[in-house]
C-alpha cells in the first residue's frame, strides 16, 4: 500500500477515535487515513517568524509523521488573510461584492504555494500519494510538477465552485484553473460544484471535457474531476450518545427552555452562513403568528472566526445589533426568544444540544457541504426526532432531500418551514428522519476518504 502525504493549511492531530476532543470531522478523517496508510501530514505550523527558512518541524504522531513550516507575517497576511480569505472565500461563496482583488494577495498566495512545494518535495517518495486539501492550495499541484514530482496528486475542494460568470471576475482566473489541472484527481462536494468546474474548463480554457467520466484534458495533462460528498465520523459522533457530558448538555438546554420548542443553529460566525437572515425569518414568523413568541426558543451558537478580516468584524456587529433589536422587541420579563452564544462547545455538548432541539436550522446562503446538518440528524432520538430545515444552497441538500429544503434568501419561505416543522406529526418526522439518518450513517467521512484515495491510487486515466 502506498504512503499518504496530506497537505492542508493547518495540521491537527487527534488523540484517537472517540476521544471527546473539540476537533471536527476532517481532522478525524485525516488522522484515520494517515494511521491506516502511514505517511506525512504537512502544513503551516500556525507560527510566524521574521525570516522564512523553510525549515521543517517533524513530529511523530500515532502511526504517521507531521511536518510543519513557519511563515512570515506578511506571507500570512497576503496568502491566508488575503488571497484565501478575502479573495477566494467570498468569490467562491458567490459574494463578489465582498471579494478583494489585490495584486499583492495573489503574489503572496503564489509565493507561499511555492514555499510549500519547495519544503514538501524532499519528503516525498516515489510511490507516495499526495492529497492536498482546499482553496489555500489550488496551484500547489502545478508547483510540485515544476519541481519534477511524478507522483499521483489529488486536490479536494471543501467549498463551492462558483459559476463561470462569477469566476471570470477574478484577475488571472485562467492561470489559477490551468494550474489546478496538474492534479490527477480533483474532488468537489456536490455535482453542482463539479458541473460548474467542468463548464468553466470547457468555456474558458477550451479544454477537452468528458462530462460522463469527469475527465478534463488540456495541454497533454488529464485530470479527472468527481463529486465526493464529505460526511461526519458517524461512529465517533454516536459514541457521545448516553455520555454524561451529552446528557448534562441536553438537560441544561431542554430544562431551561421550559415548555418552548428549541430551534438550534450552530455555525462559525461567517457571512456565508445566513445568520442575520435567520433573524429576519423569525421576525416574519412572529409577525404572522404572534402565538409563536411563547412557543419557540432560538439558540444560535456562533463562535467568532477570521477576526482579522473586516467583513467578519462587520457580520459580527450586524448580528449583535439584530439580535439585540429582536430581543428588545419580543422579550418579556421572564422570556427571551433568541439566545445568541458567541463561543464554541465540545462535541459531546453539541450532541446534547442537537438532541434537545426540535428544529435544526441550517440555512447558509452558500456552503460547500455543511456538516452541522448531518450532526443534527445523527443526534436525534429515533422515536421522537426533530426536523431539519436545510438551505437548498448547501451542498448537503443534494443528499438530504428529505429535510425541509428552503430558499434561505426568503424570510417567508424559512418562516413557513419553521411553522411546518413545529406542527409536523411524529409519524412524518420519523419517516423523514429515517431516510436522512441512513444517508448520514452510510456516507461517513471514513468512506469519503477511502473513496478519494482509491481513485487517486487508480491507474492514470486515458481519454477515449
Ligand atoms: P465550515 O464552513 O467550518 O467547513 P461545517 O461543515 O458546518 O462548516 O463544519 C463546521 C464544524 O465545526 C462542524 O463539525 C461543527 O460541529 C463545528 N462547529 C461549528 N460551530 C461550532 C461551535 N460553536 N462549537 C463547536 N463546534 C462547532 C468547511 C465548508 C463546509 C464543509 C466543511 C467540510 O465550509 O461546507 O462541510 O468544510 O468539508
Short structural description:
One of its GO terms (biological process) is trehalose biosynthetic process. InterPro entries: Glyco_trans_20 (IPR001830). By secondary structure, this protein is of the alpha/beta class.
Q: Describe the strand arrangement of the main beta sheet, using strand numbers.
A: 3-4-2-1-5-6-7-10-9-8
Name the CATH architecture of the largest domain.
3-Layer(aba) Sandwich
Which spans have pLDDT < 50 for at least 5 consecutive residues?
17-22
Distinct ligands, ions and cofactors found in the model: adenosine-5'-diphosphate-glucose
What is the total tally of β strands?
16
Beta-strand portion reads 15-25%
Q: What number is the mean pLDDT?
A: 95
Shape: globular
Number of helices: 16
What class would the helix/strand composition place it in? alpha/beta
Q: Using only CA atoms, what is the Rg?
A: 23 Å
- Biggest sheet overview: 10 strands, mixed
Whole-number total of structural domains: 2
Q: What name does the CATH topology of the largest domain carry? A: Rossmann fold
Helical residue percent? 40-55%
CATH class of the largest domain: Alpha Beta
The separation of the N and C termini measures 29 Å
Write the CATH homologous superfamily of the largest domain: Glycogen Phosphorylase B
